[in-house]
Amino acid sequence: MHRVATAIVQRKTRVIDLDLRAYFDTVRHHLLLDKIACRINDQDVMHLIKLMLTAAGKQGVPQGRVISPLLSNIYLTEVDRMLERAKEVTRSGRYTYVEYARFADDRAPRRSVQVA
Hints:
Blueprint: H1 2-9, E1 14-19, H2 23-26, H3 29-37, H4 43-54, H5 68-89, E2 99-104, E3 109-115
Antiparallel strand pairs: 1-3, 2-3
Helix pairs in contact: 3-4
């Protein structure tokens, strides 16, 4: 909320709303497991995570589980990095200082991008 309020005060009034539909249903297990393996070097933990993922099928993250928000954040880190690069590229152009705020509702993670 603070980032959005600050952007409004800075006259950043254009909004691009991104909605990742069916996000939890489309997470590819091998990509998520690769990202997790970069940080966790424990085969038992990795095995448990894989069991949790495959319990829901061949792809997707089980919804309503304690670990689901954590897995979603790990998977969406690349999107955050892309938006951070967009902020840097636009810093001195026509649309200066792109800001974004990630939030999740009860359906799926969403992003809101504000451009001045």
